[in-house]
TrEMBL record:
InterPro entries documented for this protein: GPCR_Rhodpsn, GPCR_Rhodpsn_7TM, Neuropept_B/W_rcpt
Occurrences of domain G-protein coupled receptors family 1 profile (ranges): 60-313
Source species of the chain: Alligator mississippiensis (American alligator)
Name under which the protein is recorded: Neuropeptides B/W receptor type 1
Membrane topology of this protein: Multi-pass membrane protein
Localization per record: Cell membrane
Keyword tRNA processing in annotation: no
UniProt keyword annotation of Translocase present: no
Transmembrane domains' residue ranges: 42-69, 81-106, 126-148, 160-183, 211-234, 255-273, 293-316
Keywords noted in UniProt: Cell membrane, Disulfide bond, G-protein coupled receptor, Glycoprotein, Membrane, Neuropeptide, Receptor, Transducer, Transmembrane, Transmembrane helix
Molecular function terms from GO: neuropeptide binding; neuropeptide receptor activity
Amino acid sequence: MENLSSLSELNSSCVGAGKAAGCQGKFWSGLNVSDTLPIPNFYIAVPIIYSVICAVGLTGNTAVIYVILKAPKMKTVTNIFILNLAIADELFTLVLPINIADYLLLQWPFGEFMCKLIISIDQYNTFSSIYFLTVMSIDRYLVVVATIKSRQVAYRTYRAAKIASLGVWALVTLIILPFAVFAKIHTEQGRPQCVFVFPQPESLWWKASRIYTLLLGFAIPVSTTCVLYSAMLFRLRRLHLHSHAKALDKAKKRVTLMVLVILAVCLFCWTPYHLSTVVALTTDIPQTPLVIGISYFITSLSYTNSCLNPFLYAFLDDSFRKSFRKLLDCGASS
């Protein structure tokens, strides 16, 4: 719910609004909405951008889910995690039209249950992508280490990947529960808004919520992933210097490259959002049209991640392209 209109003062009930909350002061501390009419250029452009993200995301992620579930060759450990990434992105793009409606109507007409549900789905999108990428990084590390030692990872099975995926969903569910609890309908200037309503002192709770998201949704998983990939590269470098053995075959190199690229794109899309949290916590920024435009851009960039991954799979994974073409041919012939 990105009902980001003209920004000037901070309403106490809106102080906790985060990503997908119906508060106009999404990113910056000390903001508020004295004006319910959005800047005309943004009011036109934002729904168009969100609609494109929705259409592309639904098409691409549906294709990924279909290929992985239908093609026998796609049933691998890595693809189980990719499947769950696609499901998380698909879920988010399915509810994006509700965010667009909220934005255009300048109010929340769907009731409190839908408010809690949509905010929960939006938070799933925020946390699930980075956690599944962290699990994929752990998987890549284990594969590389095992290959260097000429061993097999005995517990790296299709069933284990399913259990690990369920574990990620359970962890993310626990993480986002507070957001569902605080998501409520608040009337602002006669208009119902879906926002986070925190207890007193609201400013303290707002800061705690932003730090909570920053740490659990970015700092901890990204640090873990960086450590894993640094250790992986260090091991490969030592192997190159001290051994003539072939550590990784081409297939494993391609999978590792694909995971790295997906991670890099995720960080590219989400880092500005989390950096804006740091800015919101440390700086009081005047609400100029430029700042508001940057806020819209950061929001759109984070949403864009939900539709980019399918193109990465198609570009980097030969087996995905071949399986997709085969399924299309089968569908056409039938």
